[in-house]
Amino acid sequence: MKKTAKKPAKTPALASVVKNGYEKASPADLKRTEEYCAAYMDFIGKAKTEREAHDEAVLLLQAAGFTDMARHEKDGTRLNPGDKVYRSSEGKTLMAVVVGKKPLEAGMHIVGGHTDAPRIDLKQNPLYENSGIAMLDTHYYGGIRKYQWVTEPLALHGVFVRPDGKKIKVSIGEEQSEPVFCITDLLPHIAIEQNQKPLGQAIPGEGLDVVFGSIPASEKDKKEKVKHNVLSLLHKKYGVTEDDFQSAELELVPAGKPRSAGLDSSMILAYGHDDRICAYAGLKALIDLKAVPEHTSVVLLCDKEEIGSVGSTGMESDLFEHAAAELLNLTSDSYSELTLKRALRNSWMLSADVNALFDPMFPTYFEKRNAAQLNHGVCVTKFTGAGGKGGSSDASAEFLAHIRRIFDKNGVIWQTGELGKVDQGGGGTIAKFMARHGMMVVDCGVGLFSMHAPMELAGKLDTYMTYKGYLAFLKDGRK
Description:
Helix content is about 30%, strand content about 20%.
């Protein structure tokens, strides 16, 4: 009998081939990219603050059948595989969960992003009058480049909370019929001295006060007539007084909606991509899980990342450990501290945060071979720290191999990238706060142009592939 010759093994490609994602994506993925990005743009246009992002996320979760975990905590109702719940912290940080088939002790698959973004906050006593103009005194939040925020049209968002507990939501400047606000700048004709200052010092922090009004009140006996007039307008619209600023959280953010960018509409220009672009991707991926996952799937939408993850709603607190303990208590027959520690240690996590794209306008600040490229896919970042990886959570090779397997198996277009050159770049995420439990963590998200600017630029294909990657990760059974 004649033997059939064996076919020679296919020689693998020895060198990496870098291609734009639009050259690699299937027609189906390109169609889904546009559909997904339209939904994301609708979300981010409504979610201008961390409170608004939380509230919009809760609406999406409830529409998808998720229930408040607090109800189960109160009555002790057990959670079973397939159950979908969410847990809120102070209306700012949110955890959403789909209970998996395996016990929690086997670990969770976690996607964790943040919904706070750089902005201009009002001080506790912000309103004053100077030279017949009502002004708002501010304190910026997060790592902004102050010169970028002057002359921008700004909208005022946030809440007043009265001593009786009544919460009054504020939003002024998003509708075409509403006024906007701005921070003034010097005209170039008399800015000779300002022009000599370093970029970071030309606009001081105390120079970011906002023009709020200019019409005086009609009452003759008022000393600060313009201030009195704007207080009258606020009282008429919201029923608040000047004292109510002391228990308020009011934020000035860029006014206007997200827009498609580029003649080919291949990008999105919007405020707050960092990090709502990743937070939304994780949320949508969890909602879109079709089958009960092997491991419990968790998505975190966190607050305070831009100022170090501090405070009771930041990930440096014990917020997640407490939530995980409650989840374990509702899914296990016997709760113990050891079981909780095992659940945390055995978990896998994608720290869902953005990276910087290689910018051809500033090539000397990047090492191109190790920088993320526009629309080349979701970016996996092994480490983020500056210099000698200071302050970074450096993911293991073993975990990166798992991520490669998951993404490749599910047709996710992905790339790797660092945040700038070795001694020039670096940045922090929530990865290090989760890695302290011993879980495997890697940063993974969308690359951006102009990060932390009032308007940031993201690629649509990168945006969709991040969602697709998170979905693959949440449903994967570690096989």
